[in-house]
Amino acid sequence: MGVISVYNSIPYDLSGAASKNRFRLEMLWGISKMFDLYDKPDFCVVFDYKCDIEIHFDDTLEFYQIKTHKVQSPYKFTVISKPDKNTGKSIIGRLYLLKNISDQQVSMKVALVSNAFFQIDKKVYSDVEVLKFSDLDEATQKKICDALKTELQQDDIDISNVHYIYTSMNLLDPENDIKGKIAGCFEKIKNCEPIKPNALYRLIRDTVDAKACYELKSDDYDELILHKGITKAQLDMMLNQYVDNTDNGVKQAQEYIESKYSVKERRKLKTALVHILEASVRSNELKNKEREISSYIDSNIENLPEEFEEIIDVLLQNFGDSFSVEYTREQIYVFLILILKRWEDGRNA
Amino acid sequence: MEEMRKMIFKKLYIFSSSEKKAKVIEFAEGKNIITSSPVDGTDRGKSVIMKSLYHALGADCYFDDKWQDDGKAYIVNFTIANEKYYIFRCNRLFKVFDSNRRLLFKTIDRHELAASLGTIFKFAVKLPNRSEDTLEITPPAYNYLLYFLDQDKLDGTNFASFKQLAQYPNYKENALFYHFGAFDGNYYEIMHKLESLSDEISRLKKDKELSESMLEKVFVSIKDVSYSKSIDLLRHDIERSKEQYSSIAKMLSETRTKLIEIRNEKDELQRSLHSLEHLGKLNENHISSLLKHRCPLCESEVADTLHLRVMKYNTNDDIILLSSDLQISISQTDKKIAKLEEEYKDGLSKLSAYEKSLGNKTAEVNDVLKHQGLIEVRDSITSDLVTTRKAIEGKEVSEKELKKQIRVYNDRKKEINQRYYELMLADKIKFGLEEIDAKGFEKITNSFSAGGSNKPISTVIWYTNLIKLKHQFNPDAINFPVVFDSPNNAETDLTKRVRVYEYLAQNIDDKNQLILSGIGFKSDDFDGVQFDKVIYLENAKYELLCEEDYSNNSQLLIELSKTSE
What we know:
The complex is a heterodimer of chains A (349) and B (565). With 349 residues, chain A is an alpha/beta fold. Chain A contains 15 helices and 10 strands. Chain A has a 7-stranded mixed beta sheet with strand order 8-9-5-3-2-1-10, with helices on both faces. A 3-stranded mixed beta sheet of chain A has the order 4-6-7. The longest helix of chain B has 125 residues, at 306-430. Chains A and B meet through helix 8, helix 10, helix 11 and helix 12 of A and helix 5 and helix 6 of B.
């Protein structure tokens, strides 16, 4: 039985996706985890289907349950193992159930992830990040097993591959940590800083959010992966698309204006830049013009002057009168600066 | 010395073309008498002849009803200083010819006639035209006033022998003195100037009085107003505070302008920011649509939205970038606005402080200004007064000069009156005209009247003495022929009748041609008086004109009456 059939045999829980339907902090941990895995040959991160975060490898399934602990005190086993009044299941019980399928070919791992250290009896495990329950002393193991036996009414309890993971990530306010992590990873992967880290973050986050919020009961594993998971290939594609389609033209145009003009002229040109940005989102004319002018620059780059200002002059002469009446001279001028800056940035519209 | 200008009637022609009759009378240069039978000599035409002379020269005489003037033509051949002329009259048409009978001028207007004759006579009476306030040449009758007496108009001191003399009211005095050389254009002009001078002087004097009384009031007011002695200091002060005000006002105005500008800038920035916010929302909506795999523009399903989303995130970042830049700019303009508002408030408080301090000064300034104003008024009035006084002085000098000139005229008038009185008094005694009060002679303009039979003689005396006065006081002016028609017509007593003629013959000397008329005279009737020509009319009653004279002289009539030259 492979990963797919094993996975399919696990009961799913869409209560999170269905009830919350909003971006959740645990997803950020998932993103972080996804970038941690980038060196692996292949993987797929599934968001909020059978567990908060799932990672599917060729022969391994990993399930991570994220629990934020708001007080600065360790997470006690008694709390983790206390059955819920309504469901009758404890946190650790639910997690254990996920790996309750025994298969020779498929390795299973479940983990409780928290921002607090684990405590059982009087012992606080503050020196380990990943605590494997099977590595604990006999008595402690027995205590855990007994609790599970009682809760799940099972005689045979195997706590190998059951983990408690302490994460130093600020799960109360993870956004900045994640942004930094994404940027750092991007740099490692693409050997350059992301031009617009915020846009990259939005790209990843929105994609993950969409996956997490997708409400699906499906027995088709491929369909599930498509809607709820991000594979390494998909992550690569996102990064590549980002590299290809992100430009710094507006910022450069803004800096150019800033460096070259007086306060009064700057104000005029900057507001013109705002209008141009606004119009270029809506107006097909401007989109077409940008294409036309970029292609003109491409074809004529040998004949164009050296200096930036001089090129703008040539563009003004050639295209200045071809715009519709609603564009002022300043707006046209700023638009040409923007196009040239984007072109210099290597982005051809 | 120019030769004495004396007019002599040489010949009189009276033509009646319709009857083909005429009368031609030839006169002697000296004394002439026209007479007829002492028995039955009336209505023979003496008066017609007498009246026709000056009638031909442009005066209008009172012809007898029986005399039809309309159809007649009169020609007088006369000389002035040996220069021969013809004058032709038919109704209102006059023509004047020279000795060769070349037309000198023709006219139907009496004033024109008088002006033209004036060039020949070198004399034309001028009288004031009341309506235009100028001196104008009168119709010719005024020239002959002294020289013609109608036997029916022996009316004392009134000129009654010519018609239509009333067009110049009170003409008698001016006309008389004109003849005597005591009234002329110069006199009239001087009088005119004097009149306007005196008007001006009295106006200036009124101005002067007014100024003096104003000045008096101003002096009183000046004493009542207290003032700072250091007026220059105050003026300096005012000047400085004016500068202060204008600098505050300038600063306020500039700041206000800047504030308006910068608020406009802020408004523009805010509008840009607003539109960016709007764009941001739109972009987010697009992203949301794409996340649901819907095309944000057409709502169709899009399988792979990654590319489009990346673009949108890119735009999103640009929006954030520009938005924060705009917000920085807005907060910068806010700072500028706050600074300018502070400046403006500061300016306002400066202005209010300035106005307050100005208020304190106002009373003092007002007093000083009032004082200064009064001083200026005083100076201005004083200067006006000086000017007025000088003008009055100047005018009075001119007035004095003119009055001096007028005095020459007035002295002459006085002399004339004096001489007139002497002459009249002598003749009163001579003719025993006791009923006439000699007081009436004191002024030539006075009238006197004699009753009944003395009226003709007194009239003759008056005329004769006027002629004498003319000779004495205006000897250079032309002497016209004296034409007195039957000056004795009231007398029945032969001796008395003769006395009038003798008187005339003796008193009208050779300066004037004399033409008299009267019934039943013979040349030897007069004692010691020699008439040069006695013209005896022997024609039937009312038959003065005869065919013979017409046929002998019609050539002249034809010649002078032809229309072309």
